[in-house]
Amino acid sequence: MNPNIPSIEQLKEIGLPAPVSYAPQTWGWWVLLGVLVIAVLLVGARRYWQWRRDRYRREALVRLVELRSHSDQLSALRELPELLKRVALSLPNPVGASGAALGGEDWQAFLARHSSQPLPADFSQQLAQLAYAPDAVLLAMPGDKRQQLFDTCKHWVEHHHVAA
Question: What share of the chain has pLDDT > 90, as a percent?
């Protein structure tokens, strides 16, 4: 056997380095971590508060979907103005409370003021017609006009502005 050829008996264990902690070693990282945790908690609390605040909106959208698929179109159309008024009363600000007494042009102005896009100029009149017109008038309403009313109501409920 040649002494210059390495043999397996000559191998030795390599010493491992000391373990390194993953925790930050300086106080600045702890401060940054604390600020991030507080920011995440604040954002989470605000989202939760908004989610709870918009409960009325989610319930109204569910009711709109039910009304749209309702077999009795007459009762579904009759309920649209009431639903929008309930949504206006549910607004989480003092302006929503004054929505109960509004009618006609004031109701139209209220809906337009809280809408994210322009509403039809006679939207409040259409809602009044849905509430008070004889059944024959509502049954004679074209299907595309009914769909447009449902779409406008859905868009208003989804996107109306709420003062925080």
Answer: 24
CA distance linking residue 28 with residue 33, whole number of Å? 9
Amino acid (one-letter) located at 21: S
Long-range contacts of 102-111 (CB under 8 A, 24+ apart): 103/128, 104/128, 111/84, 111/156
What is the Cα–Cα distance from 100 to 107, expressed in whole angstroms?
9
Q: What distance, in Å, lies between the first and last C-alpha atoms of the chain?
A: 89
- Tokens 């409040």 map to which residue? 124
pTM: 0.70
* pLDDT attached to residue 96: 46
Tell me which DSSP letter residue 101 carries: G
Task: Give the whole-angstrom CA distance, residue 24 versus residue 14.
Answer: 28
Q: Spell out the residues 6+ positions from residue 137 whose beta carbon is closer than 8 angstroms to its own.
A: 129
Of residues 40 and 112, more confidence is placed in: 40
124 burial (CB, 10 Å; 0-12 / 13-18 / 19+) is buried
CA distance 140 to 56: 32
User: Which pLDDT value is given to residue 135?
Assistant: 86
Overall average pLDDT of the 135-160 stretch: 88
- Tell whether the model's pLDDT for residue 97 goes beyond 50: no
